[in-house]
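ligand=magnesium ion
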Amino acid sequence: MIKPKRKNYAALLIDLDGTLLNIDLEKFVLSYVDALSDRFTGLVEKQNFILHLFTATARMVDNNDPCVSNKKVFYEEFCRLIGHSLKEIEPIIDNFYETDFPALSRWGSEQPAAKAVVETARSKKIPLVLATNPIFPATATLQRLAWGGLRAEDFDLITTMETMHFCKPNPQYYLEIADKIGYPPEECLMAGNDTLEDLVAAEVGMDTFLVEDFILHRQGTDYSYDYRGSLEDYLALLKALD
Ligand SMILES: [Mg+2]
């Protein structure tokens, strides 16, 4: 049984993929990129599309300008690279998320303890943030949340590319969340399965919980954590809070 370091936290931040949602990330990403690139047949050659998608994503992840949303950074770079305007490609992308993305649910499933985690945070009235890397549009995150059997209304904030200005593993991402919910980072607990993207929250003063069910080790990162265990262990910790 993990003993809480403190009696309570002002807010809880928790990751989605591999933490609240069981997902085969490798197969999901491969299928995602394949299906999305198919939508651009005739507009952009497939290999170039994939290259540009990853280049624009990297540009978004590296962005440090607090005035530009992740979405804007991504599409400015992506549209420039593929030589088509946002006006041209937006209907294609919107349609992809409506009709093709739902089929990717085959790579995701409910994480058994997830619902109890959300319910426990709710019953204790601790603000809950879905701190998933905001590289996706809201629809893609809300759909993945549903694959995990969870509901958007159970979260006080869900981070998406439209509303955020930084991505994991930029520590500014965590400061932006703290600012949005109005609590000092020192009073927040971030939980996730990634030894870099989630544990980096410690850099801005948050406590961290490494959820090890589907742990993602990043080489060369040695961020410390305050707690480590399964999602069940995390649930037990929440129950022990005031
Ligand atoms: Mg994760």
